[in-house]
């Protein structure tokens, strides 16, 4: 069951049950809140910032099915954490039949996107995908649309593949200069550095160049949040991730958020492994910075992969809702996933760029992420 919320209502959506179904009943405890023939229901008249637990049951002449559960909190809470970023799934304008972000915003309530990826177009010169200009193209058009509707963007540098700025820029100053070009062109709220693979994550010369460059970026742009995103083991960051965290501390790099990517890591239970990996990240941050649990969680993020991953791991809409709710309950400050392009149904479709490989409603993962 996936959920979306307003100040006074919670909308539930679920997959159809098999067999003969007359309709569905939604219960809060033993109280029936709705009875519908379709696969969604909106419960209205709720207080702002109140949490509700629901059970959805199919019924027919023979009785009711086992229940499916969902918990959601209405919006309107007083923000108590200025470091929290709105949910911002990755959107890639050079791949996977990119949707119009304005239409996705209208359909889901999402307010922010992480725009991927800034690479090198040769040397230390930044470009979208290493080939599209920073301004005047599809990427800028998408960003203008998001901002015109009151939204914000995170800009992601790097990723798994491609010709990246980290190895190509000769110094921290040059790297910071390339990042500044992007900031000046695009005006992001957040810059996200996806430090991956052997050329950046496992190359400590490049790790240090990026980290020292980020110190300069933050000095020159104190109001822009800085995120580093990297892979993980099911138990937490591997040696390269722990090194990145410890080195950020040693160099005094003011990183606002450390985001792990808990997928493509041999998982058979994505929810549990995501929680375990996040707890491992928390412990690594506590060890490096001397933080409390709450301080560590407030510097943490999760970036998942919707549907079927490259390693055939499965993240269903229900699982993603669980992950979102766990992240929210612990006070994490970033939630993203790869990717909006894939947030469309194609059951049995495998791992592809423009759909999730599973049964879902269109933009279901984005709608859930908006509830972060």
TrEMBL record:
Pfam families: fn3
Record carries keyword Transport: no
Fibronectin type-III domain span: 1-81
Residue ranges of domain GH18 in the record: 86-372
Sorted UniProt keywords: Carbohydrate metabolism, Glycosidase, Hydrolase, Polysaccharide degradation
Name this polypeptide is given: Chitinase
Organism: Nonomuraea longispora
CDD domains referenced in this protein's UniProt entry, alphabetically: FN3, GH18_PF-ChiA-like
GO molecular function: hydrolase activity, acting on glycosyl bonds
Biological processes per GO annotation: polysaccharide catabolic process
């Amino acid at each position: 069951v996936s959920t979306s919320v307003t100040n006074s209502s919670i909308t539930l959506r679920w997959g159809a049950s098999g067999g003969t179904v007359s309709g569905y009943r939604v219960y809060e405890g033993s109280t029936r809140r709705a009875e519908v023939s379709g696969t969604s229901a909106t419960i209205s008249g709720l207080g702002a910032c109140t949490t509700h637990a629901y059970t959805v049951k199919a019924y027919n002449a023979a009785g009711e099915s086992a229940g499916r559960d969902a918990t959601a909190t209405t919006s309107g809470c007083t923000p108590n954490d200025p470091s929290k970023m709105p949910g911002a799934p990755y959107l890639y304008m050079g791949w996977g039949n990119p949707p119009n972000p304005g239409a996705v915003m209208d359909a889901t309530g999402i307010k922010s996107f992480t725009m991927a990826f800034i690479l090198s177009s040769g040397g230390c010169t930044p470009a979208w995908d290493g080939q599209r200009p920073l301004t005047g193209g599809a990427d800028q058009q998408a960003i203008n649309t998001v901002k015109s509707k009151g939204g914000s963007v995170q800009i992601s540098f790097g990723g798994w593949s491609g010709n990246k700025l980290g190895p190509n820029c000769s110094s921290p100053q040059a790297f910071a200069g390339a990042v500044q070009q992007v900031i000046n062109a695009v005006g992001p709220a957040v810059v996200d550095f996806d430090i991956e693979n052997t050329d950046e994550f496992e190359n400590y010369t490049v790790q240090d160049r990026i980290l020292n460059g980020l110190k300069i970026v933050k000095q020159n742009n104190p109001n822009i949040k800085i995120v580093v995103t990297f892979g993980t083991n099911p138990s937490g960051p591997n040696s390269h991730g722990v090194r990145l965290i410890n080195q950020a501390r040693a160099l005094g790099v003011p990183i606002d958020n450390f985001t792990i990517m808990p997928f493509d890591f041999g998982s058979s239970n994505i929810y549990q492994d995501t929680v375990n990996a996040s707890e491992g990240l928390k412990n690594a941050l506590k060890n490096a910075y001397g933080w409390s649990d709450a301080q560590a969680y407030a510097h943490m993020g999760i970036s998942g992969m919707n549907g079927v991953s490259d390693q055939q791991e499965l993240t269903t809409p229900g699982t993603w809702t669980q992950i979102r709710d766990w992240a929210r309950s612990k006070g994490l400050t970033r939630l993203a996933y790869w990717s909006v392009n894939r947030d469309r149904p194609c059951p049995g479709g495998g791992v592809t760029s423009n759909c999730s490989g599973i049964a879902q409603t269109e933009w279901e993962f984005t709608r859930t992420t908006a509830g972060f």
